[in-house]
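Entry, Tuesday afternoon. Goal for today is a structural model of the target with zinc ion bound, before we commit to ordering more compound. Inputs were pasted exactly as handed over by J.K., no edits. I checked the ligand SMILES twice against the vendor sheet because last time a stereocentre got dropped in transcription.
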Amino acid sequence: MNNRKYLLERVDEAAVAQIYADGFEGLPLDQKILIWHLYRAALAGRDIYYDQRYAHSLEMRDVLEEILTYSEGVDRETLAEIERYTKLFWINSGPHNNLTARKFVLKCTPEALAEAAAQAQRNGATFTGSLERLRPMFFDASFEPSVTNKSPGPGKDILSESANNLYVGVSMVDVEGYEERYPLTSRLVKTENGLVEEVYRVGGRYDREIREIVQHLDAALPYATPSMAASLRALVKWYTTGEDADRAEYDIAWVQDKDSPVDTINGFVEVYMDPRGIKGAWEALVYYVNREKTENIRKIAANAQWFEDRMPWAPEYRKEGVRGITANAIDVVVEAGESAPMTPVGINLPNDQSIRETHGSKSVSLSNVSEAYEGSTLPEFRREFAWTEEEAVRAQKWSRIASELTTDLHEVIGHASGKVAEHLNGAPQNALKEQYSALEETRADLVALYFVADRKIVDLGIVEAADHEEVVLAEYEGYARNALVQLRRVREGTQIEEDHMRNRQMIVHWLMANSTAIEVRRRDGKTYYVMTDPAAFHAGVARLLADVQHIKAQGDYEAAKALFETYGVHFDPALRDEIVARVDRLNMPSYTGFVQPRLEPVTSADGEITDVSISYPLDLTTQMLEYSGRRRQA
Ligand SMILES: [Zn+2]
């Protein structure tokens, strides 16, 4: 078990790793069948996200997958390049890098691609799209260069400069004063007769995919607990109408389903891809509760009010009667859409602030994803950026525990905490616009960094008293170190787009400028971010957290923007180049895409499901082609 394969392959700066769901086989049959139907509902929506991310993605993917399926006799060098590009395309769900938002391109010539396609065609491939039309999409890095551009520079428009398919022909001027009826679940199109919302629902945009999702959700109903069935029915209704009121009903039903051993997230959820922060990207996850690991997270959740009462911010922003935070450690069986192949490690939903305040939220940490990350990380990576051997050893020994704990605090206490001023009507994102997501991630991270050092963690029995100081040091050192190491992910340009990265960059640089917690040191031409004073770190976190909560609570857009512009967005390209050289020397990946477990039903002679088997493909190409109904021809 211990020497099983996590790291499967490297593709340029990406790693590919396998996720295992060990507990699945021990689940009762009805839960396995339930998961089987939810699994199919998850995979049924996969193409929605590809299309949302880029209007040409599906056509591009078809070309690539047909060539790989019928590759016999294709020029070797060309085939190797098409394979490299296609793997990155799958991992990033399209031609734009998921972290930098920037486009990557095919490095062979258009003629070589055409030749490969012609050879594949002779082998039996069929092509529906036109290679000529797709030429700039495949080969020109300056054509539609960014999927999401929230900081396009003075005078430029965040919608026009973003290549995603959430808007067509719309710029910020058009949406000023325009109120969408389907803010989360529509594509907004500018026509001769004004703006039109193309609603994601049965009979609307993505009709075919959504119908299939609904069919599998319906099939799951008989196997669900009553509270989960209520939630699934509400989800089907939302998919049917697309109405925001039905979305709210579903959010509430989903939050109220607290104790079911199996759960799913399926729908238009996160808004990171939209520079306005309003349109939902489609995603799905299916998972079961990992009982063993859930114990710690439950202890934290049970004490939510204790933490809330001690938030280092103005008392008027503290919530009274914190309720309904349901926290679980879970193992995912499948992820699709925005959550795969690159996956989050923790999730807290729903995003609707007013529902969180009145009904609470559910929070999950993805245990088997963290396990796969750890299992595929090599120890040299930590040593390279640690200032002392002691720091490296500490990271090796404690960072897993520290990061599980801070992820729990981030999701369970962080996102769920705090109150906003009345005048925001429970929707601070409307005031904070494109700054909202990064600010909210900052807030949740700061809450985790603040409480990880609290004696309460020991009192709750989560960390031994003797180990606590080391765990805190490992967390603070790792946090500072990672602001430097994460620069490897932005190989081009001089600014950071991704919200979680902006957040980390901002916190660390704010602490550098406003406290004595972190020093920049150099040795042998290498730069280090060295955490030198944990008490100053903790005090700095408290001050910044008070500011950040105030900004969120008041919807102070200018203050949020100033924080990120000063500390979070821009970086020194020379420093980035140094980091890139160091990680490349170690062949260290910038990000990881995951191969999901595979389910298959076992049926009796009369077609009844008698069991569901789980297996692990250990190969990205096999899984991706299979998802598209393809299989490599020998
Ligand atoms: Zn978060």
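The mean pLDDT is 95.
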